[in-house]
Amino acid sequence: MVKYLIPLILFMVLVAFLAIGLNRDPHEVPSPLINKPAPAFTLPQLKAPGKTFSAGEMRGKVWILNVWASWCVTCRDEHPLLIEYAKTEAVPIYGLNYKDQRDDALAWLSELGDPYVLSVADLDGRVAIDYGVYGAPETYLIDQSGTIRFKQIGPVTPDVWTKQIVPLAQELNRQGNK
Amino acid sequence: MRRTSAALLILLLAVAALAQDAPPASGDDPVIENRLNNLAKELRCLVCQNETLADSQAGLADDLRREIREQMKAGKSDKEIISFLTQRYGQFILYRPQVTPTTYLLWFGPFVLLIGGLVILFHYIRTRRDAIRETPLTGEEQKRATELLNAASPKETA
Fold this sequence. Notes:
The structure holds 2 protein chains of 2 kinds. Chain A is α/β, with parallel strands linked by helices. In chain A, 42% of the residues lie in helices and 19% in strands.
């Protein structure tokens, strides 16, 4: 009897593997940067090109780096959500304007609103390569020590925001205040 | 049917011709361009995942090729460039992932399956050979067989 069950069990295992495989998004490549130091950068600010901003300035704070561009279609869908998230003041959101034209980026912010504390301009996409960006929007949660703790590829949906990012940021803030 | 396949053939030839006419990668040093091309064939474009970095026209692929070209000009070895890329994009960027504990299943799984299959096959053949081996009947069995045959034959003739 057991003999006849073996092919069935093997078949079920195969089906389970295929089911998992089919439900995974092949575009979500696990980032090797999780729990690694966020790459350092110093870039001109989008709104004030004379001033720079560097990741090092955020030492001691939990913050979000959101990669966006005015040419990025999904970013347009994500934008109103970011504005909502920024209103909650749970985590400060900084923008990395990825391979964009300055005028287009500024027009986008004035038209759709600006959820960012500030945005920096990565015109040639070099900083984005350091962060392993391969498709905007991408979002990083960085802790007080400058370590990347979470990465979202694609838009930060309300589900991801309330169930993953906010609890993790609260936990990190709690640990940091001890 | 014939017409569609002819059309398909023409289309394929046209695509092949186009592929041949793809502009050479920009750059001045043919040695570096050659190295870049060979390395880029081993790397996956992360935007269109079934295309190599050498073939892809995606913006990111352009940027990565530029990055690789500059690192080559700076005298970095292929190994150093690959480790630069895997630190940022993970093993996924390599078409031939390195052999590490996490990729053992990927590299050795097929051989394990093959050996397992062979073991099962040999086991099956041996048990089957034992099952069909001819053994002479004992005296008792011979007697029973004759009885059964005798009992069956009158019916047939009737």
